From TrEMBL:
Region span, Disordered: 1-21
The keyword Transferase belongs to this UniProt entry's keyword annotation: yes
Organism: Fibroporia radiculosa
One Pfam match: Aminotran_1_2
Recorded family membership: Belongs to the class-I pyridoxal-phosphate-dependent aminotransferase family.
Name assigned to this protein: Aminotransferase class I/classII large domain-containing protein
Keywords for the protein's UniProt record, in alphabetical order: Aminotransferase, Pyridoxal phosphate, Transferase
Amino acid sequence: MGDSSTPAGDSAISGDLPQPCSQPLNVLSDEFYRARLSDAAKTRKADGIRALFPLEARSGLISLLAGKPNEETFPITSLQFTMRDPSSAEDIKLELTEGELHQGLQYTPTNGFEELREWVFGLQAFQHDRQKGEGWTVSIGAGSQDLIFKAASALLNPGDALFVEAPVYAGVLPVFHSLGCDMIEAETDAYGICSGSLRTVLENWPSTRPKPRALYTVPYGCNPTGMTATLERRLEVLELSREHDFIILEDDPYYNLYFGRSDRPPSYFTLDRSQPEVGRVVRFDSLSKIISSGIRIGFVSGPNVVVHAMDQHTMAVNLQPSSLSQAVTLKVLKSWGYEGFALHTSRIAQFYREKRDIFEAAMQRHLAGLAEWTKPEAGMFFWFKLLLDGDGDSESLIRTKALERGVLAIPGTVFLPSGRKSAYVRTSFSILPAEQVDEALRRLRDVILDAR
Ligand code: PMP
C-alpha cells in the first residue's frame, strides 16, 4: 500500500496504489441519476460565490472574489499536538505549517480540502478497488451523519418509500422521518439482510405504488445487531437493486473495526464495480471510530450527480466541513501514510476484538440461559434477545427496572422504525473496563431473574 515514510508536511500522500483497470465499465449515466434526484435537490442552486472558489487556484490570478477574513486578524498563531505512533511506542509531535494553519482557519472548498479528497480516492482504490475517474466522486462532511442526511435529501421526496434494514441504526430514523419518507423494514438475521424475503416483498409490491427508491444498510458490525453481511447476501441485494431499480446507501463506519474471519466480504462499493451496470451504491465512511468522533469528519463516495447535489445542499446549510478539523485530520493522515493508517486501524480492530471477548465472557458468566446472542465480528455492539416470559418485550425491563438497578442499555424497540415490541437489547462494549462490564451484566442478570 502507501509509503509509511511520507514525512509530515509533504504536499501529497504517496503510495503504490492499484492502477486503474483498463477494461471499459458500463457506468450508469448522469441522466440516470438526474432523473432520480429529489425535487428539493433539483431546485437547489449553486452559491454564486462558492461556485467560483475553484478558479482561485489558477496561477497568476488575482482574486477579488471572496469575503474571506484576513488571517492576520485571527488570534491563533500556531497549532501543535502530539499523536500516538502506530509503528512505535513513542508519541510523535506535529505542528501545522503556517500555510496549513491559514488553510485550517479560513473558508475552504464546499466539498472539502482537495488533498483530503485525494487521500480518500487513494483509500477507496486500496480498500475497495474503486478508481478515480470511473463516474464517482468524493465529498467530505461533518461526520457521516451529515452526509447520510444530505444523500437522503438528494434522492428522496416526501412520501417516497425506502428500505431500511431492521433493526436499524437509530440515528437514521430522524433523518428519514424528517424527510417524510415511508420506511419499509427489510428483515435481517445473523447473515445480513434476508435477500429472499426482500425479493418476496419486491415481487409482491402493489403495481399502484412506486417501489422503494433506496435501501439503507450498515453491512459490517451493524449498529445495533453487530452482524456482518455475508458475500452471498450482498450480491443478492445488489442484484435486487438492479432488478427493482433502487440505490444502496452503504453506511460503513465499522468497516475498519472488523476483527472476524480473515476472508472478509468485500464492501457493496467494491462489489458494485463488477455488476453489469456500475453505480448503484452511495458509500459513507467515517473517521469517528478511527481518529476522533469529536473532530466530525466523514466522507461520501458516490455517483457524481448525487454527490454534487449533496454539495449544493452543503452550500445552503453549512457552507463546508470544518477547515480546522480537516487540517488536523490531514496532518495525521499524511504523517501515517496509508501503511500507518492500515496499521492503526488493525490495532483498533484488535483492541475491540479484545473488548468483545471480555464482554462475551461476562455474558457467558451472567446471562447464559437468560439471553441469546450471536458473536459480533466487527463494530462495538452486542445485540441479545432476552428469554423472557409473557410478551417478550424488553422495553420496561430495560428502561425502568435495569435503570433502577443502575445499568443503562437500549431496548430493541428503539431500533425499529415501526416501534414494535422487541425482546432484544443493545449493549456497547467499546468503553467499559472489564470490572464494570462484569458488574453491569451481573445487575442485568438480577433484573431478568426478578422479572421471571
Ligand atoms: N452510522 C452509524 C451506523 C453509526 O453507528 C454512527 C455513529 N454512531 C453514524 C453513522 C454517525 O457517525 P459520524 O460520527 O461519522 O457522523
